[in-house]
Amino acid sequence: MVLRIRLARFGKRNNPFYNIVVAQARTARNSKPLEVLGTYDPIPKPPTSSGGTGKAVKDIKLDTSRAKYWLGVGAQPSEPAWRLLSMIGLLEPKYPRSTNMEGERGEEVRER
């Protein structure tokens, strides 16, 4: 039984909302999961601070202890779930950003 941590889509058209779930790998996207770990709202919300300045934020709510448990048991995260778990700090980023390499590449392009 292969387990996946993945996103199950809910919400309306043009207004997505995702549950972060643990499900068997061969089941459909919105089938009944084994456990719901959290939610992810990809639509940026304006900052709620009284000052009103700052960046808009995307809402991620996750039960980190249960996510660590499922990762320890051997559940494999999907690509979007991997990205969210790396934002929270539970996993290493799959493709780390390397500003040094990009800077060097930019200089080579400028020299040509």
Protein traits:
disordered C terminus; 112 residues; 5 strands; 35% strand; alpha+beta; single chain; 3 helices; five-stranded mixed β-sheet
DSSP helix count? 3
Q: Tell me, briefly, the overall form.
A: globular
Number of DSSP strands?
5
Distance between the termini: 54 Å
- Which whole number gives the mean pLDDT? 84
Name the helicity range: 25-40%
* Order of neighbouring strands in the sheet with most strands: 4-3-2-1-5
Write up this protein:
This protein is an alpha+beta fold and 112 residues long. Helices cover 29% and strands 35% of the residues. It has helices at residues 64-73, 79-88, 99-111, and strands spanning 3-12, 15-24, 35-45, 57-62, 76-77. The protein has a five-stranded mixed sheet with strand order 4-3-2-1-5. A hairpin with a 2-residue loop joins strand 1 and strand 2. The radius of gyration is 18 Å and the shape is globular. The termini are far apart. Residues 106-110 have low confidence and may be disordered.
Write the layout of secondary structure elements.
Layout lengths: L2 E10 L2 E10 L10 E11 L11 E6 L1 H10 L2 E2 L1 H10 L10 H13 L1
Parallel strand pairs: 1-5
Antiparallel strand pairs: 1-2, 2-3, 3-4
Summarize the structure.
The chain contains three helices and five strands; from the N terminus they run E-E-E-E-H-E-H-H.
